[in-house]
Design brief:
With 285 residues, the protein is an alpha+beta fold. It folds into two domains: 43 residues; 198 residues, Sandwich (Protocatechuate 3,4-Dioxygenase, subunit A). The protein has six helices and ten strands; from the N terminus they run H-H-H-H-H-E-E-E-E-E-H-E-E-E-E-E. The chain has a five-stranded mixed beta sheet with strand order 3-2-7-8-9, with no helix packed on it. A three-stranded mixed beta sheet has the order 4-1-10, with no helix packed on it. The longest helix is centred in the N-terminal third of the chain and has 20 residues. The two termini are 34 Å apart.
């Protein structure tokens, strides 16, 4: 930073903006904008960025927008890499003891995963080390939740999701949606996922590399579970043997989510919290 900005003028602008925003509604939006702008002007006052640096910042935001399309959500990646998504999800999903912790869905979630019968194979290209996954969906009292909807998605053995690797993987590879049986149980076949690094070919990855932030993600399988009368659970089960288990780029690893991915099988328990207040549905990014 070259410090060529005018500090006194910056204070005057900040004060005038606060005055104008004081007339805005005292709701969540108004409170958020006031708080964000107070911090933004504090950054300006401390670092005194030059016009060239402001242009670079705006260009970065523009590049994030250009990098976002139907198959890639660079904005979600930006929120994920700086811990904002996990902070919101962890705070919003603060649960009682014994409830499966939630995690962020990540930028590769798709809401259109095909509905499959129990026992189906998620692997559509026959590539990878086979593994059987079985699990049970329960409520806080360990009562099975019959008919729970269980969405599953994960990367292949090379750590690539099909929607980031469309030239090499078939559509909906390693994705599926199941209905738990009368005992809340589900099972399917798939392949052992690999760990990976978040993409660094876009503006967010390049910024993270420049800042020395880890882009590594330990191997994991995502689950999104829905059952009437209970809060939707979005979570992931992580391979405890993965060397990146302690440096997850998205801050999502929690002790209760670390499992032993056996040589050919994995067993999981997914415990949902009760829905105390009706919640609007959320679209994963």
């Amino acid at each position: 930073m070259d410090g060529q900005g005018n500090s006194s003028e910056g204070h005057e602008v900040a004060a005038e903006l606060r005055h104008r925003l004081a007339a805005s509604p005292s709701d969540r939006l108004g409170d958020a904008v006031r708080l964000i702008m107070d911090h933004a002007f504090q950054v300006i006052a401390t670092l005194r960025p030059s016009p060239v640096e402001l242009d670079a910042f705006v260009q970065f935001l523009t590049d994030v927008g250009y990098a976002t399309d139907a198959r890639r959500q660079e904005w979600v990646l930006l929120a994920d890499v700086f811990g904002l998504t996990d902070g919101v999800f962890s705070g919003d999903r603060a649960a009682s003891s014994g409830i499966t912790p939630s995690t962020l869905p990540g930028p590769f979630y798709r809401a259109d995963a095909p509905v499959l019968p129990l026992g189906a194979d998620l692997c559509r290209d026959g590539t990878g080390e086979s593994i059987s996954v079985s699990g049970q969906v329960m409520d806080a009292d360990r009562v099975p939740l019959a008919g729970a909807r269980v969405e599953v998605w994960h990367a292949n053995g090379a750590g690539r999701y099909e929607n980031q690797d469309p030239d090499n993987q078939p559509e909906h590879n390693l994705r599926g949606c199941f209905t738990a049986d009368a005992h809340g149980r589900f099972h399917f076949r798939t392949i052992r996922p690999g760990g990976y690094a978040l993409p660094d070919d876009g503006p967010v990855g390049q910024l993270a590399r420049r800042l020395g932030l880890s882009l590594d993600r330990p191997a994991h399988i995502h689950f999104a579970v829905t059952a009437p009368g209970h809060r939707r659970l979005v979570t992931a089960i992580f391979d405890g043997a993965d060397p990146a288990i302690a440096r997850d780029a998205l801050f999502a690893v929690k002790p209760a989510l670390i499992a032993d991915f056996g040589p050919r099988s994995l067993t999981v328990s997914l415990v949902l919290d009760r829905e105390s207040v009706p919640q609007p549905s959320k679209t994963e990014g």
